[in-house]
Specification:
heterodimer, A: seven-stranded mixed beta sheet, about 0% helix, B: four-stranded antiparallel beta sheet, 12 strands
């Protein structure tokens, strides 16, 4: 597609439930990033994929968070046993080689855990 | 360690007035510099970037920024703002990691509020 697409745009769930957030990057972009943004804060890095592999997952807050990118394109962020503190906007971004770190962002998925 | 400091968390300004949003960074290696804008309820959008060459870079919507290596700054400016410029502005620095990878270090953001 023309831009980074994220679904769902909004997700409301109950504490303890499992959630999946999907990101479809710009075609041809090999790098894919997940960030989390809380109200009034900057983006918080979660994980970075280069192709199919997670090149850096140092930002994942704990083992309830997991992300995959099995074919090197679409990525899914998975959150198990959600907690109220997981409520945030989850941003996905992609980039192509040689862009010096310029990222193209999706609109985000707003997660609310009740 | 690398870091980015946006010196003002909020900047109120009247329409048609000039504005400067300040950004300082700390890094022992060469960096690339970015300003991103986030309009209400939207994702982040690149405003402008500095990679090399001229230290004055121009971006979208009439914004420009100047890279000052000696002061490690990358302040964003616009000579005359519009109501539609009301948004959150983020400064980010790209630093090298292992291999050909780079990592973006983000500031906390500056909320620009343009009033009529």
């Amino acid at each position: 597609g023309a831009g980074v697409s994220q679904t769902p745009s909004n997700k409301v769930t109950e504490k303890g439930k499992y959630v999946e957030l999907r990101c479809d990057p710009i075609s041809g972009h090999t790098a894919l990033y997940w960030y989390r943004q809380s109200l009034g804060q900057g983006p918080e890095f979660l994980i970075y994929f280069q192709g199919t592999g997670a090149a850096d997952d140092s930002g994942l807050p704990n083992d309830r968070f997991f992300a995959v990118r099995p074919e090197g394109s679409v990525s899914t962020l998975k959150i198990q046993r959600t907690e109220r503190g997981d409520s945030a906007v989850y941003l996905c971004a992609s980039s192509s080689p040689g862009t010096a770190g310029e990222l193209f962002f999706g609109e985000g998925s707003r997660l609310t855990v009740l | 360690a690398q870091s980015v400091t946006q010196l003002d968390s909020q900047v109120p300004v009247f329409e048609e007035a000039p504005v400067e949003l300040r950004c300082n960074y700390s890094s022992s290696v060469s960096v690339y510099l970015f300003w991103y804008v986030q309009y209400p309820n939207q994702g982040l959008q690149l405003l402008l970037k500095y990679l090399s060459g001229s230290t004055l870079v121009k971006g979208i919507n009439g914004f420009e920024a100047e890279f000052n290596k000696s002061q490690t700054s990358f302040h964003l400016r616009k000579p005359s703002v519009h109501i539609s410029d009301t948004a959150e502005y983020f400064c980010a620095v790209s630093v090298p990691k292992t291999g050909n990878n780079r990592k973006l270090i983000w500031g906390l953001g500056t909320s620009l509020a343009v009033n009529p």
